Structure formats: structure tokens, C-alpha cells
Amino acid sequence: MDTQVTTKFKIFKTVNEVFEAIIDPEKMSNYWFSWGTGRMEQGKTITWRYDEYNAEVDIHVLEVVNNRNNRTIIFSWGGSDQETVVTITLTELEPASTVIEVIESGLRENDPEIVNKMIDQKEG
Prior knowledge:
By secondary structure, the chain is of the alpha+beta class. The protein is built from 3 helices and 7 strands; from the N terminus they run βααββββββα. A hairpin with an 8-residue loop joins strand 2 (about 35) and strand 3 (about 45-50). The protein is globular.
């Protein structure tokens, strides 16, 4: 069984704006989590807080690439019981349009909740 979830969508912002909106916790707190302890930088471990769920999660930033031809952010999260790897790739289509592709891999195929988790991650 393929234990990864892929989501792809287009946003009408420049690739630089989208990249910053993902790695900067102040910007990301406007649409995803309540607050984060730092920018996503390769090798760092940061914490994201979700006040509405009374939850925190540690993010282990594995790779951050920001150059003209490649904008990629890779991190792992989920803890020792179910750590997964998230790969975010940004592709500029035109000056003010970016395709965001998010792949989350490492879900356990024998997990009785795998279908629900995959659906939740696809929508998240």
C-alpha cells in the first residue's frame, strides 16, 4: 500500500511570498497554527502550537532550499509513535502564481486509522 498523501494546489501569489508564508512562523500563524518558536531553517527543531486543539508539535526541519530553480521545505513531525516526513515543493508558474505540492510520507499501512489519517492530511 502506498502510505503517502499528495496534495497540489495553485495560489495567486509569487513563489517568494508563498515561501516566506511557510517558513516564517509569524506569517504562518495567520492561517495554520497559533504560534511557532522560530523560522524553518535546516537542522532546527521548532515547536508549533495549535491553541484551538490545545496541542503542540515539534517540527524537525530536514532541508530548506530557496533558489531560483528549487524551493523545497522538508520536515518530519508526529513524534515517536507516528513520525512522518512532509515535503513541500513550490513551483512558480508565472510572476504571481505558484503551485504548492505537499507530500506526506511514512504513514503506517497497518494502522487501523490510516484511511482517516490520510483523508485528514489531504485536507489539511
